[in-house]
Amino acid sequence: MTTAATTATETIDTSKIKPVNPPHRLLMAPGPVNVDPRVLTAMSKPTVGQFDPYMFKVMGEVQAMFRTIFKTSNKQTMVVDGTSRSAIEAALVSVLAPGDPVLVCVAGRFGMLLKEIAERAGADVHVIERPWGEVFTLAEIEEAIKSVRPKLVATVQGDTSTTMCQPLEGLGDICHRYGALLYTDATASLVGNDMQADAWGLDIVTTGMQKCLGGPSGSAPITVSDRAVEVINERRSIEAGVANAGEIAPDADRIHSNYFDMAQIFDYWGPRHLNHHTEATHALYAVHEAARIVCEEGIDNAIARHALNGRAMSAAIEGMGLKLYGDQSHRMNDVVGVIIPDGVDDAAIRAQLLNDFSVEIASSFGPLKGTIWRIGVMGVNARKDAVLTCAAALGNVLERNGVKVSTDKGIEAALEVYGE
Amino acid sequence: MTTAATTATETIDTSKIKPVNPPHRLLMAPGPVNVDPRVLTAMSKPTVGQFDPYMFKVMGEVQAMFRTIFKTSNKQTMVVDGTSRSAIEAALVSVLAPGDPVLVCVAGRFGMLLKEIAERAGADVHVIERPWGEVFTLAEIEEAIKSVRPKLVATVQGDTSTTMCQPLEGLGDICHRYGALLYTDATASLVGNDMQADAWGLDIVTTGMQKCLGGPSGSAPITVSDRAVEVINERRSIEAGVANAGEIAPDADRIHSNYFDMAQIFDYWGPRHLNHHTEATHALYAVHEAARIVCEEGIDNAIARHALNGRAMSAAIEGMGLKLYGDQSHRMNDVVGVIIPDGVDDAAIRAQLLNDFSVEIASSFGPLKGTIWRIGVMGVNARKDAVLTCAAALGNVLERNGVKVSTDKGIEAALEVYGE
């Protein structure tokens, strides 16, 4: 990664900085992806105040649409004002008081992140691990639950670092049988893969906007079951500056973050609209339009579209003679892992792809850094021309770097998936 | 406040929700204010990836411009991805380890918020208080420092709940003499009032976009002195999923939040660009353009403009026969407090102002709820026609509600301030 821009800040004449004028990229990394033009337009509508009746209408509609998208009837469905991991931290710090036992399922970077956030929250953290590229069976999660007896089981549905999608159907029942709540991070999986919050018994699900929702990073939708709301509200407090007499909970009980106090966020989104943060108006407009696009298409159609395009991208990769990474029967629909051929310079290939074709793909983290490429087929980019363009560009760059691939065959294989 | 919209979510048909189409408001509450149209345009530019060289250029320019705006040479000047209070929490939780003594100066709701956030961070919190509507002398803050010997002194420059602006010049030297760091929350004051981070010895200053910067809520600029960086980096750690071998600090030392770990945010904005969150691209474009507008005008010219328009608004209020709230010699340039005349229904007047003129003003919190109105003269709304329109509309609504005011005299008094 270049350091030039950062170093250059020291000598920038701030009176001469030009307006932002970004290059046109085709963003085929697993997020952020290109924001849908409809969302960009929505974002630039006029500002209203945070207590404007119109703002309440937009908030209410966002809540309703995310109930549809999460497949839930949870009253407490809303948006945390921050990037994807802000909602993760809000979920964990609001449920887990210091010392509370939590079981974290780790099979990639984002499982490790859940572990770290839970540790920082002071929880009693227990971990089960699987090698990167695999998923857990429900049976082994149940075994661990039996032994740990956690307050919360924390999972990642789609861990983009490995491209794997953890099966969750039935896990809620298991957790509830042992008195545990179930959390899942669906940042990179929601709208690209099936996710049934209510039917699968998920108590908290969080996501981000910059993946399959095709919106801008910076807002993090969350849904919370009544069961989890009850646990969170045990530590509910009202900020002294906005409370009525006698409403403030004792200091000792409070959730250990103000910004991530979900009980206060419920009250902000609820009928009293108790001031907490100042809702990010324009980001919320973006969330609204991104959700509208999904609801218009229909959530199951959107998932099917991601699956189709993910299959086409996989076919292109294999068709051109490259190898796919990980257990394909559990691959996320919206991310394809590609094993980087021996002797190929990961960074050089990606730089050339960006410079010549303006196409961005990513490598991964930890043990997979420089070992696999990750291609995202997400949001507005889950479409035929994006898949074919990315495949053709990658094939061409590899060929020019002396890697033996057959780009034509890759494109043909993808077209076959599309039935053409 | 209406609850209708929220209740209605239960029955919304999500396939029939219309695109956002907000009413045209003149937002004269103390934030959020109307986002400058230039900023709205910048926000809708094409997305780039978070590690794109162009993204690094935008980040570097944002850092440089905020050094100009904060009047600092602090290397660690950047944006936290969240609303104003996200940067407040990031500052406090990154400096204060559990048990660390902190002195919080409380003379309004936002001082109370600093106290609450520090308490939740587990700090040993000591408070000095002044009645709402007053400010502290540096001598009384020094007395408290002598007795508490805090690691950090936390202050609010402009507490919008009271419209007061706390003098800070010289306070840095006092704090440093006793080995304390100095933090100030300049959410509502920056760009509207003078703020000299380096000259006044401020170690951390945070702000928001939706006030005098004329941008959208959701991004929170912050600047951190080398002295404070050193304290924060004592607990620096690198996320396991992105660390090289041996780089992870011991668990016990970590800052008690991942999202608000400023050491990790420094590393994300620094030459290694170590992945932390996914920077909110489009919000950053907005921050860039809002900062460009201030740098183009010149920070001191922008402050003078806020002062002029604040004086005009005050003159209009007094001219029409209403009373100003609080110690006027310490009033924030950009917020005017108006004592609500006896017997006047606060909520009814504000609702009529919104419904008839589409002008929004605010009441306040705590002891001042329903007692004062707060009129913001901020960002793009710190201009003559906005001030006159707000004054004329308020005067008219009051007259129609039987309150004896002389709107014409108010407008005349404002025009005199403008030299007309």
Automatic annotation (TrEMBL), chains A, B:
Regions of biased composition (Low complexity) lie at 1-11
Q: Which cofactor does it need?
A: pyridoxal 5'-phosphate
| Gene Ontology molecular function, alphabetical | transaminase activity
Renumbered to this chain, region (Disordered) spans 1-21
Residues forming the Aminotransferase class V domain are: 54-349
The record's similarity note reads: Belongs to the class-V pyridoxal-phosphate-dependent aminotransferase family.
Family annotation (Gene3D superfamilies): Aspartate Aminotransferase, domain 1, Type I PLP-dependent aspartate aminotransferase-like (Major domain)
- Assigned keywords, A-Z: Aminotransferase, Pyridoxal phosphate, Transferase
Recall the taxonomic lineage recorded for the source organism: Bacteria, Bacillati, Actinomycetota, Actinomycetes, Bifidobacteriales
Whether Transferase counts among this entry's keywords is yes
What positions belong to coiled-coil segments?
none
UniProt protein name: Alanine--glyoxylate aminotransferase family protein
